[in-house]
Specification:
By secondary structure, the protein is of the alpha+beta class. It is built from ten helices and ten strands.
Amino acid sequence: MTHAVTMADYETLSRAELIRLLKCADERALPAGDDHDFTSRQNVSELLQNLEPYQYKLELQNRELRQAQEELREARNRLSNLYDFAPVGYVTLDDKGCIQEINLSGAKLLGMERAELPGKPFLLFVKNNSLPTFLDHLRRCLESDEQVTSELEIILPADKTIHAQLLSVRVPDNLHRSYLYRTAITDVTERRRAEQQVHNSLREKEVLLKEVHHRVKNNLQIISSLLKLQSGYVTDKRALELFRETQDIVRSMALLHEKLYRSPDLTSVDYAEYIKSVATNLFRSYGVNSELISLSIVVDHVSWGLDTAIPASLIINELISNSLKYAFPDGRAGEITVELHSNDLSFFTLAVSDDGIGIPGHIDVERTESLGLQLVHALTQELDGTLSLDRSKGTKFIITFTVDKQEPA
């Protein structure tokens, strides 16, 4: 018994059956012994008419599938190029530190063919002095979910060596129930070489600057010695006093350069120690009995360049000299105090005081003919500071000024 072809019959046919059916219909013949009884050409014609939209749809889907496959292939090629020719080397290490996968940039960085690297322990490329760094790198990476960075030396063929930066992150290896290390390797040899050149250049300038301070100190000491020799030929008491004061100023400047020469960074001086040395020289120059006149120094840690240090040092030298000359007559005992404080590392207060007889009230220190106080006023102006005098307990000079934090040494 025969039956007409329906859509349900078509939907149950396999792709091979449809192709065979179409071929037979095209030859105007039907296959013998087919499970489906197609005895009417009309049925075949109806089947072909019903099949056409599905055939078109199938061809359209095949075309879209081929296009998607082509786009996927192109994307894979682009991704492969990005991976292989990236500016850094990418390598995957297993839990034993052996290379599992590496891109072309990584192989080129290690100086070997890519096919030769899988399975090799990465330790083979690490210089002996960098082995502890590499092992510590793997340990830290294993213990953390964060990226771990280290720098070490890599051995290349022909005994060449480069400096490399490793940036690694731990990822799970589900297949072996362990971990993999995804690592980016960057050649930082040129950067390290540039850093070393900068370091060497800074070191050379530091040595040169030390030499400058040393020579300035020596020249100032020569001037001080010449002043001492010349004073031996001076009989006038006032002129002799001027020679000694000038010699004390030169000594304080020489001492400052000596402190800078011996300072680790050439930019700062231990000011408390410096003031103590200046006072000691002045006590010796004036023949002061240190058991009668004592010195108290209360100084914050400061870091000044020469533009500030020299004027401040000359002010301290002059004010201590004035105290030694006038504050304690007739063997009177007392104390000289030097204070230096800062509120925000840019605003400073310098005070030099004594508990001696004090400056008489009728003397105007701002209009005095004293060369020493005129020098103090001039140096205060050089610091863009202000000078004030407290006569309540002896004599206390107070200088306030600011220092640019970017002041060069």
